[in-house]
Amino acid sequence: MKPRTNGARNSRCALLCGLVPSLLACTATASGQDRAELGDQAKTLDAVVVTARLDRVPAFEVPASITTVEIEGRSGFNLGLPKQLGRVAGVSARDRQNFAQDMQLSIRGFGARATFGVRGIRLYADGIPATMPDGQGQVSHFSLLGGGSIEVLRGPFSALHGNSSGGVVQWRSAEPTPEPELLVQSSIGRDDYHALGARLRGTTGSNGYNIAVQGFETQGYRDHSAARRTQLHGKVGFDLGAGGTLDVVASRLDAPNALDPLGLTRAQVSEDPTQATAAAHAFNTRKSVMHQQMGVLHTLALGPGTLRTTTSAGERQVEQVLAVPVAAQANPLSAGGVIALADRFSGMDARWSWQGTLAGRAAEMTLGISVERQRQHRRGFENFDGATLGVRGALRRDERGQVLAVDQYAQAWWHVASKWSILLGARHSTVRFQASDQYVTAANPDDSGRVRYSQTTPVAGLVYAPGENLRLYLSAGRGFETPTFNELGYRADGGAGLALDLRPAVSHNLEVGGKWRHASGARIEAALFRTDTSDEVAVASNVGGRSTYRNVGASRRAGVELMLDVPVSQRWTLQGTYTGLDARFRTAFPICAAAGCQQPGVLVAAGTRIPGVARQQLQASAQWRSGAWWATIEGSAVGEVSVNDQGDERAPGYALANLAAGWRSRLANQRVDTFVRIENLLDRAHIGSVIVNEGNRRYYEPGAGRGIQIGVRWTWDAPPSP
Fold first, then answer.
1. What is the DSSP string of 548-600?
2. Which residues does the chain have with pLDDT short of 50?
3. Which of 239, 330, 460, 489 has a Cα at 20 to 30 A from 702?
4. Neighbouring-strand partners of residue 247
5. Considering Cα of 531, then 534, then 540, then 545, what sign does the dihedral take?
6. What pLDDT score does 535 carry?
7. What was the pLDDT predicted at 463?
8. Which pLDDT score, from 0 to 100, does residue 2 have?
9. What confidence score (pLDDT) does residue 368 get?
């Protein structure tokens, strides 16, 4: 990569101020990957830490399951993260047809219990944590238009991240081009969906940039599910000469008043899968989100290694109107039916990395410390004012909370012999929660409190290379998940205040696998894994959009993952993944099985399947290209899914097919891409996602029927500089 040169300070400031006039001053870190591995010919920003593994060790050499999904060049655009991640083995990415709750994302069964957001998985955007210090993450601000790739690590096999058991999802910006490139795209589809976006990227001197803005609106597949969003993403890289390099990343999401149709019962799904519940209409259930974040990554040669310092800060504002019955709010301990959350979060990560030789063989080591802080102001209001429902009423809760997470970590890789390499690491995490109750009455006592969690999570892996194109590995690791603020937010016994009796879940994971690749681009990967978890955190109740949680003892997730990617000719490529996952509770525990229940009276037997997790998933696609034309046919199948702890109801399995085709025309330095895509080609009725343990047995969120999407993209490339 061509070195950067110093640019004028005023030009830098003007560019940054124009890019993010409304954002906080905060930080970023970075993407980066072995460029030879990606085959990327474009101009790149400075290579930075890959969060899911070490700096310079390719994914092929790591004793873990790692998959990179290239966003550029997919069949169509504006397809959303569920389509992007659905081709990764071990990953369940469910489109809920509900933008008020966002997509459901789980890895190896971790995260399946989350009623909104992402749980049990560590998220990063260009190295900036998209998971807050309490462990709750969001992917809604990931800009696919500004993105270049998504890397997924399955299992707790990196000491470079913490507070998760399922793995890591790392979104990366598209690399800047050598010359300026302007892209404008638009697409329309069913349910009055339309999207518009633009991206500008390029290189000025040796400084790269990528700026993208996009938005969409839809009336939604179901009644009462309209939504609109706007997103901004920007990444700019600078050379500071002897002072190293600096990358600045900023993002903003604005999603006002996304309507929530709530879940349906089996009978309602059979009657009309597009309907919303009566309570959704009565209370006008909805959610508004504003998220903005910024980050700075500074890279500096220090001694025999490299010091990389990441600082970041952001804020997230949420207001959600729930369908909590008015009568239930007569309880003096009720927190009302409108949630107003204001989160401010910041963090710093400093890591020193060294690459060299040890006893004459390649080695790499990373040492680091991470400090993250989160401040939350949680308020609750009645969701009525007099006889008017669905509006903010009287105050019922006022609470300020704080999370402080401090981690120290070390990880090393060594090519110990000609055919053997090892990876060792450990991370020590300390997470402190504190709550200050500011709504105290005679009937609602002071519920202030604090709790501290601490855990050391080691990882170890061994890789054997019997040949140039084959790797076999064995690895073991421990995962650590603290309860999030949302899980601590309401007590399962119906009392006020935080559920400070919740304990963190600790997982022990063992994996054996193999990876094969060929010069033609063909790849085959397979993995067998088993994860045993103690103090599993599960949903205790879920009524009116409000969830409570409890520890339920031990659980086990065991499975197999297969991935195949084979170019069978110059025109045809076949790709497929299979996931088999057996997820079960290993100890019996009592539950409340009826709405309004406060005293558990039903026993869930040991061996019962964990809800929200499919036993089998299969995805396959065939892609054809010839000149300016391309076409893709995709198929997916998902097994049945248990919807509650007792396992007395299940969402049936389904199989879907999609078809897409497109054409590219070129004129001088311009390109026009067009496509048409048919989703659910055979118009199969199916349950797209489930709401685990929904107290009114409204577990089901139907998937959409057949629909057509068409789009056009115009790209202008500046002619090369003389």
1. EEEE---EEEEEEEEEEEEE-SSSEEEEEEEEEEEEEESS-EEE--STT--S-
2. 1-52
3. 489
4. 237, 297
5. negative
6. 92
7. 97
8. 35
9. 95
Q: What is the 3-state secondary structure (H, E, C) of 451-499?
A: EEEEEEEEEEEEEEEEECCEEEEEEEEEEEECCCHHHHCCCCCCCCCCC
Distance CA 383, CA 389 (A): 6
| Cα–Cα dist 336/281, whole Å | 18
Four-point Cα dihedral 368, 31, 106, 276, nearest 10: 130
What Cα–Cα distance (Å) separates residue 224 from each residue in 104, 279, 359? 20, 11, 65
Tokens 């396992």 correspond to: 647
- Distance (Å, whole) CA 400 – CA 433: 11
Distance from C-alpha of 696 to C-alpha of 596, rounded to nearest angstrom: 9
Spatial contact of 507 and 532, defined as CB atoms under 8 Å apart: yes
Antiparallel, parallel or unpaired: β 167-173 and 121-125: parallel
pTM recorded for the entire structure: 0.87
As beta bridge partners, residue 556 has 532, 584
- Asked if 335 contacts 496 with a C-beta cutoff of 8 angstroms, the reply is yes
Task: Read off the pLDDT of residues 573-591 as tens digits, 9 standing for 90 and up.
Answer: 999 999 999 999 999 988 7
Nearest alpha-carbon partner for 691 in 642, 643, 640: 643
Q: How many CB atoms lie under 10 A from the CB of residue 230? A: 16
Residue 89's H or E segment, with its range, is none
CA distance 491 to 421: 47
Site of tokens 């600078």:
238
Q: Which amino acid is at 633?
A: I
| Beta carbons within 8 Å of 253's beta carbon, 6+ residues apart | 140, 141, 229, 230, 231, 289, 290, 291, 292
Using alpha carbons, select from 164, 146, 142 the residue that is nearest to residue 155: 164
Do residues 286 and 260 make contact, with C-beta atoms less than 8 angstroms apart?
yes
- Name, in order, each residue with C-beta under 8 angstroms of 72's C-beta and a sequence gap of 6 or more: 148, 149, 174
> What's the pLDDT at 616?
96
Per-residue model confidence (pLDDT) at position 402? 94
